[in-house]
Amino acid sequence: MAEFSNYAENAVLNHLLRNVALTSPTTVYLSLYSTDPTDADSGSELAAANGYARIAIAFDAPSGGVCLSTAELTFTASGADWSAATHIGIHDASTAGNLLFHTPLAASRTALDGDSIVFAANAVSVTLQ
After folding, report:
1. How many domains does the chain have?
2. At 14, which helix (H) or strand (E)?
3. I need a labelling partner for 49 at 20 to 30 A (CA). Which of 24, 62, 64, 77 fits?
4. Would you give the DSSP letter of residue 74?
């Protein structure tokens, strides 16, 4: 995942080139989208219902410009089926907040009631090129 959001691009540029403080979020969260979030976060995140909520995600220290997720992450539908997830995002808050990064999934994933969408440890990566 190397697609910075507009928010993240501007925050990093301001921090590195204009001496504008950049406060790191205490926790970042993985999210699922049914449409491309785009750099402007204009896509459709799955509805916060039927068990869907963003999940806190942690990353190893970067190596070679890449950070990898440290643990398995599981989203589980409960009460009804979810829309197909086609993209993931990383946000700076559990609800609302700012999209930091986004990328399409290799294949869309659908969770029927009781099913889970699982990302193995090291499966989510953020790469700066």
Report:
1. 1
2. helix 6-18
3. 24
4. E
Give me the residue label for tokens 């294949």. Answer: 107
What is the reported pTM? 0.95
Q: How far from each other are the two terminal CA atoms of the chain, in whole angstroms?
A: 10
The mean pLDDT of the chain is: 96
d(CA 31, CA 51): 13
Compute the C-alpha angle 107/111/117, nearest 5°.
65
pLDDT digits (tens, 9 = 90+) for 9-66: 999 999 999 999 999 999 999 999 999 999 999 999 999 999 999 999 999 999 999 9
Token pair for residue 56? Answer: 């806190």
Domain of residue 114, residue span: 3-127
Per the structure block, which two tokens stand in for 69?
């997720």
